[in-house]
Amino acid sequence: MTETLNFFLIQIILLLAVILVHTYLGLHVIRRGIIFSDLALDQLAAFGVIVGIGLGFQGGSTISYLFSLVAVLVGSFILAFVKPRNKRIPHEAVIGITYGLALVASIMMADKFSGGSAYVTQTLSGCMLWVNWNLVIVTLMVYTLLSIFHYLYRRKFIAITEKSQKIEHENLWDLLFFATLGIIAALIVPIAGVLLAYSFLMIPAAIAALFTKRWGKGLKIGWIVGLIASFSGLLASYFFRLPYGPTLVLALGIFFIGALIMRALIPEKT
Predict the structure, then answer these.
(1) What is d(CA 168, CA 52) in angstroms, rounded to the nearest whole number?
(2) Residue 134's Cα: distance from chain center in Å?
(3) 38 with 202: CB under 8 angstroms?
(4) pLDDT (tens digit per residue) in 63-94
(5) Residues of 9-34 as b/e, b for ≥16 C-beta within 10 angstroms?
(6) Phi-psi region for residue 49, left (φ > 0), alpha (ψ -120 to 50) or beta?
(7) Which of 47, 194, 245, 270 has the fewest C-beta atoms lying within 10 Å of its C-beta?
């Protein structure tokens, strides 16, 4: 009984922290139209893990996280500064190519050592069942610091997202934004996997964006729906013995489909 309570407490606290932070960043990603930026950084984080394993370092170790961090920071620099001047090539093309290269590099690296394909699969689906308190505490500390940073400079990030005014050193602020996405990717991908990490960031924010353009209201909608969907997935996984990560993705997806149906039935106010 004690082990079960400990499991649920760890998962609930981790899900709470992830939904709160990822929904805010997801709103930026959606409103800026850089939909696959987080997916690219998530895959780079996975690539860093695989590189570390290939060099003999255990996944989940400090060195493994450092490899992920380096990979996502390089990716953040690319996404922030490599912006085609030719209007025929959108920024999203650079993001998509970055994701494709990261995925191919992960597969090629994994092919070089025994059991590599299993690690590729693990980076996609994650291993949230093995989360411990030390990892949760570190995640909470980093997420708290990032949240404080974004709160202090929220006007600059929102101005860039809404294109409401010209920001001095915009590329530098862009780098800081993508670096934030990269840091949370390096933290969450080894736990949740690429697919669930992307779902955490995109789906609650996408649901919120369906119903409002206001930041405060959007956050509330994303937080409430994201938490309900995540906790539903957690309970379904436990009681029906379903794989945890995929069940959470499915739960979030079902709520998104429900939101699409609701949006279609409820006339939008003008």
Answers:
(1) 38
(2) 20
(3) yes
(4) 999 999 999 999 999 999 988 777 778 888 88
(5) ebbebbbbbbbbbbbbbbbbbbbbeb
(6) alpha
(7) 270
Instruction: Give 119-173 pLDDT, tens digit per residue.
Output: 888 888 777 767 888 989 999 999 999 999 999 999 999 999 998 778 888 889 9
Contact 200, 184 (CB under 8 A): no
Q: How many CB atoms lie within 10 A of CB 44?
A: 31
Q: What is the pLDDT of residue 1?
A: 58
Q: What is the pLDDT of residues 173-184, one digit of tens each?
A: 999 999 999 999
Instruction: State the Rg of the chain over Cα.
Output: 18
pLDDT higher at 2 or 106: 106
Q: At what angle do helices 37-54 and 116-125 cross, to 10 degrees?
A: 150
Query: What token pair was written down for 263?
Result: 């949006």
- CA–CA separation, 162 and 207 (whole Å): 19
Q: pLDDT value at position 101?
A: 94
Q: Which two tokens stand for residue 48?
A: 């860093």
> Any alpha helices (H) in the chain, and if so which ranges?
2-32, 37-54, 62-81, 91-110, 116-125, 133-152, 154-162, 170-211, 215-239, 244-265
116: nearest Cα among 127, 128, 105, 130: 105
Q: Is the pLDDT of residue 117 over 90?
A: no
- In this structure, what is the dihedral angle of CA atoms 64, 69, 75, 79, given to the nearest 10 degrees? 150
Is the CB of residue 49 less than 8 Å from the CB of residue 59?
yes
Does pTM top 0.85 for this prediction? yes
Q: Which of 2-16, 194-208, 210-224 has the lowest mean pLDDT?
A: 2-16
